[in-house]
Amino acid sequence: MAGSIATFCSGEALQNAGISLENIDRSRVGVYIGITEHGTLETFTEIQSLREHNDEIRFWSHHQNPRSIANNPAGEVTLNLKITGPHYTLGGACAAGNIGIIHGMQMLLQDEVDIALSGGVSECAVEFGVFAGFKAEGELAEHEDPAKASRPFDLHRTGVVVSNGGGVLVLERLDQARKRNARIYAELAGYCINSDASDYVLPNAERQAECMEKAIRKAGIQPESIDIINTHATGTRGGDIVECKAIHKVFGEKTGVFINNTKSFIGHTMGAAGALELAGNLPSFTDRIVHPTINIEELDPECNLPNLLIGKPREKDKVDYILNNSFGMLGLNSTLIVKRYVP
């Protein structure tokens, strides 16, 4: 399933970018897809089939290996689109979408490719183990109204809403994009990836703050230059509070920085989250409207950040920089900053 999602998203991204693979060197196209996990559904299905046939090995599909290997999502893109450049997936837990984009940018800067199909995909919503794991941790969202189950920052939030998705962006060097008169949605300005090295699951506010600070420095700006922070906040009590502490450490009471959360609309798409949530905020560069966080009925006092948008969108005088946070288990943090393109 992840391969199908990645292939569909890549095709749509190329079409939106106005790029025909018939007219370019396909060996100079790279595919870098972030994932949380992959292959467990295929393996579970084959084991179930095997048990139903008295462990007769001839009922084990020979397709299981290529379907379950780690590079499958990116590999299926190259097979279906006949791309001959490098491809691989990047296992980055729930930070993977951001990491796929960051890695694609790095490969462009190293002149390894001319086009990078970068982002993340997730098929977690069909994997029993994901739901069982969050349920065992007491972090699987529940609500009598499913549309209100995803409620980051709400005092009565109960956890994660697991959802599927995919987000793939076309990345190019700026001179090449200008040369072909491409529609440029944004420029990649700064980034950081770091590790907590403190716990398998529990996040670390100090390391998250450090990640944001380094990304801001790499972008060559100050914290007050950021116009929108798209939070990672998943709706877990500990995770939301820790990120809020990290944001407050970096940004203090700066009132020009608007803060929102996209998961409140779409749930947590795991490996796709960084790319999808970034894409969901890019229109703000054009219309200057910042989408809110929904489903907050009673704000957790420990998540009371300045300019946390609740319920209704807001319009800003300008939107020049967006900061996108994505964090993953085993203490993996990623921050990506994009800026408005000015011709």
Shape: globular
Low-confidence stretches: none
Number of discrete helical segments? 12
CA radius of gyration: 20 Å
* Straight-line N-to-C gap: 39 Å
Q: Which structural class should the secondary elements be placed in?
A: alpha/beta
What is the top-level CATH class of the largest domain?
A: Alpha Beta
Counting DSSP E segments of at least 2 residues, the number of strands comes to 11
Spatially, the strands of the biggest sheet line up as 5-11-10-6-7
Order of helices and strands: HEHHHEHEHEHEHEHEHHHEEEE
CATH topology of the largest domain: the name is Peroxisomal Thiolase, Chain A, domain 1
Whole-number count of domains: 2
Helix content: 25-40%
Major sheet attributes: 5 strands, mixed
Structural features, described:
- With 343 residues, this protein is an alpha/beta fold.
- It has two domains: 2-123 and 164-179, Thiolase/Chalcone synthase (Peroxisomal Thiolase, Chain A, domain 1, 3-Layer(aba) Sandwich); 187-339, Thiolase/Chalcone synthase (Peroxisomal Thiolase, Chain A, domain 1, 3-Layer(aba) Sandwich), CATH 3.40.47.10.
- It has twelve helices and eleven strands.
- The protein has helices at 2-17, 40-52, 64-68, 72-81, 96-109, 128-136, 174-179, 205-219, 237-251, 263-266, 273-281, 284-287, and strands at 29-35, 87-91, 115-122, 165-172, 187-195, 228-230, 258-260, 289-290, 314-315, 321-328, 332-339.
- Helix 5 (96-109) crosses helix 11 (273-281) and helix 8 crosses helix 9 (237-251).
- The longest helix has 16 residues, at 2-17.
- The chain is globular and about 65 Å long.
